[in-house]
Amino acid sequence: MHNKFTVVARVRPGQQGALVAMLKDNHYVFPGADTDDFGFQDMPELHFASLCLYDDPTDGWSLLFEHNVDGEIGDHLRQLIATAEARDGGAFLLGLYRLCEGFEDGTLHQLHGYMFKRVHRPAAGFISAVNMSREQILLDAAVYEVVDRTLGEAGVPLDGAAAQQAVLAALDADAETQERWHSLRDPGVEMDFAGKAKAVASLLGHGIGFLGLALINLIPERTARMDQARPDPDLRRSLEIGEDLVPTNHMLSVVHLHTDAGRQMAKRMSFGILRQLVALIFNKSFLGEINTIHFAHWAFANDKRRLIFVSNYDGSWRSYLDDFTLKASNGLNLAWAHSTGFPKTWAMLWGGASMGPEFIDFARRSMYPTLVWYNAYPTLSVTNIARNRALRAALKEARKGSTTTAWLELV
């Protein structure tokens, strides 16, 4: 089971600079990185993590800590704290949160409760590697490497059956795969009948509510101001410094929401639709035609006045946004239609994100620089992960006696 969530803690007035200074050496963390004050590399359940600061006119600055993990939220936070304690007695993590409101004199024992109380669960989100643990993703990658190396070695016959025999022998002999490659449980992605029925009923209920609220909100929607300002050059430069370090990137956006009751209710219906569409349809690696998203989610914050969006995706930021404007603009409108300054929509579905340049400027204006980003598998794209999963599944069947060699097409 996966969990996507953010911990949002208000920063003590004037302490945002001190937070930035503490985090500056951890900007990009990956397996094998020299600097990792959080111990991310020691957490086997962690896929992606990030820390950012964002400003709110009412609440001031907040520290946002994103987590994408295997297992329960509480268990991961306990692992985070235990890792911190093992590394430096918890000094770094405590120093970070003692710069936040309500934890000035907090102890490591109190930190779990402090963070858990500030967890913001997704209003909607997407995971490409559905039900795949980090362990399985890395094991599948090792299987692919063994297969690729074995088929590339001189002297391996080109005959399909002989190649299959050589590959199976190599997997059983390799120190990294051996028994694990065929024994690790591969959970399926299909919902049972009861789950599907519940999701369909929820989708219909939210859809009916959405239609009524779309009519109620049509005039406020059409008369809302659209911000056509270009992104600030300094903001753009600060964002670009942290982009394209590896083929995968990270994005954080925090937008202001209209707070009248009609549009708040409409937003609840919109995200209800998005949640059930992901559960029913977009649950097999790709979000429709978009094959670049690892983990992404939206979450409400600051008494539902702000909407946070965090995403870990393959490719450049511009290509990522272009994909959405061309292939999934209706979904973006459902999520962002009642954000202040958003390009004008009709009934929260049409227009909006399909107005490419205007939407891209809106998205860039809403972003905050990522201060820390952890990526557990920086060399693997979404398509790599899906291919590796299919390859290992096919080879497991071959090990059971299947004579088909169609798996060769995956290498």
How does this structure look, described?
With 411 residues, this protein is an alpha+beta fold. The protein has 15 helices and twelve strands. Strands 2-12-3-4-1-5 form a six-stranded mixed β-sheet. The chain has a four-stranded antiparallel β-sheet with strand order 6-8-9-7. Helix 2 packs antiparallel against helix 4 (108-117), helix 5 (134-152) packs across helix 6 and helix 8 runs antiparallel to helix 11 (261-280). The protein is globular. The two termini are 28 Å apart.
Oligomer: single chain
Percent in strands = 15-25%
As a whole number of angstroms, the C-alpha radius of gyration is: 23 Å
Helix content: 40-55%
Low-confidence stretches: none
Tally the beta strands. Answer: 12
Overall geometric form = globular
Strand order of the largest sheet: 2-12-3-4-1-5
Structural class, from helix and strand content?
alpha+beta
Please report the distance between the alpha carbons of the first and last residues.
Answer: 28 Å
At the first level of CATH, the class of the domain at 2-124 is: Alpha Beta
Instruction: Report the biggest beta sheet as strand number plus sense, adding barrel if it closes.
Output: 6 strands, mixed
* Tally of alpha and pi helices: 15
CATH fold title of the domain at 2-124 = Alpha-Beta Plaits
Give me the CATH architecture of the domain at 2-124, please.
2-Layer Sandwich
